[in-house]
Amino acid sequence: MAARNPVTWLGSPTFPAAARTALDDSQLRRNLKHATGTIRTKRAAAVSELDDWEQLRLAGEAIKNEVLTRLDTYLVQFEEAVTARGGVVHWARDAAEANQIVLRLARQAGAGDVVKVKSMATAEIELNEALQAGGVTAIETDLAELIVQLGNDRPSHILVPAIHRNRAEIREIFRRTMPDVDAGLSDNPAELAGAAREFLRRKFLTTNVAVSGANFGVAETGSVVVVESEGNGRMCLTVPETLITVMGLEKLVPSWRDLEVFLQLLPRSSTAERMNPYTSVFTGVTEGDGPRQFHLVLLDNGRTSTLADEVGRQALRCIRCSACLNVCPVYERTGGKAYGSVYPGPIGAILAPQLAGDMHDPHAASLPYASSLCGACFEACPVRIDIPEVLVHLRERSVEAKGRSPESAAMAAAAWMFGSRARYEAAQRAGSLARFVAPRGKLSHLPWPGSKWTNARDVPVPPKESFRGWWRRNRG
Amino acid sequence: MADARSEILGRIAAAQPDRDGVAIPREYRRSRDYRDVVELFTERVAEYQACVHRATPPETIGALLRARGLRRIAVPADVPPDWLVDGIDWQPVEGRPDIEQLAGCDGALTGCALAIAETGTIVLDAGAAQGARAVTLIPDYHLCVVRPEQIVGTVPEAIAALPPTRPLTFISGPSATSDIELDRVAGVHGPRTLDVLIG
Ligand code: SF4
C-alpha cells in the first residue's frame, strides 16, 4: 500500500471536534477577525478598481480548464522547454518520491542546510520533516513561515501562515528563539521584520541550495513564476548555486500571454494590492545570473486522481490566493488549524480530501462539512471554482464511502457552527438550514431527506432567504 | 514498475477521456484610456512608499544619493556614462556579480526594461543598464531610472512587450511584508528604500 498522503495531518481530529476547541480560544478568534476583516475591505477596493474583473475571472477559469483538459500535452511541452534551457525535470508520483528527489539533490550539492521560500507544495509533502530525517535542515525564510517554524507551530492560512498570531505573540517567539535578538525588541511590525532580516541575512549569503515552489509555469516557454512580497524569494532564486523548485502538476498555464490575466487576478485577490512587491520569472539557467543548477520537480500527489473526478477537478484551478479563506464565516471562527491540513478554509475543504484520496478516513471525510455553503467563496474566487458544488459532491462521496453517517457529520457541523442552540433553532425557523446540506435545490442528491434525523424532526422548509443573507444578519 | 513520468502521464490520459480544447474568452481590457501614464505611474509608485522624482538623471542622481548619505553604489557596467557623477564610490558590476561585493554596497543604481503605470510596477529584464538580478536585491537601497517612454499603461501591455525567457523581476515598491496582522510594512530582505527617478 502506498504511504499515507501527508496533505492532511496525521492524528487530526475531525473538523467539528477541532472547531469546537478553536471556538473556545478567544485570542485566536480576535486575531482572525481583525486580520480577515482588514483584508476583506482591502480586497473589495482592489477588485472594484478594475471594471473588467469579471472578464478576467472568466478568462482565468477558461485558461485553467484548458490546462486541465490537455495536462499531459502541456506538461511534456513544459518539460521540453525547461530542459532546452538547461533545467533538469523530475517527476514525482507522491510526497515520498518528491521528498526523496529533493533530499538526493540537496545531498549531491553537499548541503547541510537549504533555504526555502514559502511554498504550499513543499508544505503539503512535509518536505522539511523529510529533509531533517535525512540530515538536511530546511530554513524557512518567509516571515510568517519563520514565525511558524520558530514557534514550533502549524500554519493556519495559505498566504499568511501565522495569521493566528498577533504582534505581541510574535515578539515573544522571536525573543525566545533568535540567538542574537535585541532584548528591547518592540512589537512594532517594522522592527519585527528587521529582526527577521538580521536573522536570515547570513543564511542567504552562505547557503548553497534553495528550495522554492512555483505560482505558475508557462508550458510554451518553460518559464517559472514566483510571486512574493519580502524579497526572500528573490534571495532564494538568485543567490544559491543550486535551485530546486517543487511544482504541482496543475500550476501550468499554456502560454506566456496568459500571465497577463493571472498577474492581475492573483495580487488583487490575495494581498489585495494592485501588485505584490516582487514577482520573479526565470527560465532554466541563465548564464551569469542566478543558480548554475536548476531542478524542477513535478508533483502529482493526488492531483491526477482529483483530475479524474469530473466535479471535483475544478479544485485544480486554484491559484492559492486565499481570498476564499478571508471571506469564509466558518474560517473566521475556527481558524486554519481546525482543518488539519496545509490547505485550510473553503479550498482546503475540497482540495485536502481529494488529494488525500481516502474518504474512509474520518478526518478527511469530515472536511466537506466544514462549510455553511453560503457561497461567499465562489463569489471571491478569481478562477470561479464553485466550491459549494464540490462540497456537496464530496459529501456524497463521503457518504458512499460509508466512513461515517452523514447525519452525524452534518449535525456535528451544525452544532459548532451555530454555537448555541438558540441560534441554531433560529436558523431552522428561517428555513435556512436546508441549505446547510443542500444548496441550490440539490436536496434530492443528498442522503438528508428521509434519514432518521429528518424523520425525527420537521423537514426544514425551503429557504425564504439565502443562507448567506441569513448569515449576514445573524453572524456574531 | 513504470517510471514516474510515464505513470503520471498515463494517469492523466486515463482521467481525461474528453480532449476537446477550451475556448478562452479574452474580453478583458488590453489597454485603458489613461490620459497620462507618466502621471499615473508617478502617483501609484508613491502609494507603495517609494519616492518618485521627475528630473533629469545626471544632476538628480548625485543629489539623491548625497541627501541619503550613501557613498558606495553598485552599478551595472553599461549604464550611460553621465550617470556616474563625481563624489560617489561607484562599484561597477559586470557579468555574474560578487555577492560579498554587493553586500558591501550602500545601494544600487540601475535602469529598467519597462514600467507599468496602472500598478506602479518597474520591470527589470537583466538587459541594458540593469545588471544581474542580485544587483538590485542585496544592497539596502535601489535607485531606478525610468525613461518616460518606457512606461506602459496596463499589465497586458507589459506582458506583450517583455522577453519571457530572460530573468524578469517585477518590482512594486520597496520590500515589504503583510505577515504581521496583514499590515504592509516596508522592509524585509530586498532594498528597504526605493527611489524612482523619471527622466
Ligand atoms: S479556491 Fe479560489 S479563492 Fe480559494 S485560494 Fe483557490 S483561487 Fe483563491
UniProtKB/TrEMBL annotation, chain A:
Domain called LUD: residue spans: 77-285
Tagged with keyword Magnesium: no
Domain 4Fe-4S ferredoxin-type: 315-385
Keyword Hydrolase: no
Keywords (A to Z) from UniProt: 4Fe-4S, Electron transport, Iron, Iron-sulfur, Metal-binding, Repeat, Transport
Stretches assigned to the Lactate utilization protein B C-terminal domain: 400-473
PROSITE patterns: 4FE4S_FER_1
Any single biological process term in GO: lactate metabolic process
Family annotation (Gene3D superfamilies): Alpha-helical ferredoxin, NagB/RpiA/CoA transferase-like
Short name of any one Pfam family annotated for the protein: LUD_dom
Superkingdom, natural source: Bacteria
MF annotations from Gene Ontology: 4 iron, 4 sulfur cluster binding; metal ion binding
Protein name: L-lactate dehydrogenase complex protein LldF
Species of origin: Tamaricihabitans halophyticus
UniProtKB/TrEMBL annotation, chain B:
SUPFAM superfamilies per record: NagB/RpiA/CoA transferase-like (SSF100950)
Domain LUD: 93-198
InterPro entries: FTHF_cligase-like_sf (IPR024185), LUD_dom (IPR003741), NagB/RpiA_transferase-like (IPR037171)
Domain of life: Bacteria
Pfam short name (any one): LUD_dom
Name of this chain's protein: L-lactate dehydrogenase complex protein LldG
Organism, scientific name: Tamaricihabitans halophyticus
Lineage per the UniProt record: Bacteria, Bacillati, Actinomycetota, Actinomycetes, Pseudonocardiales
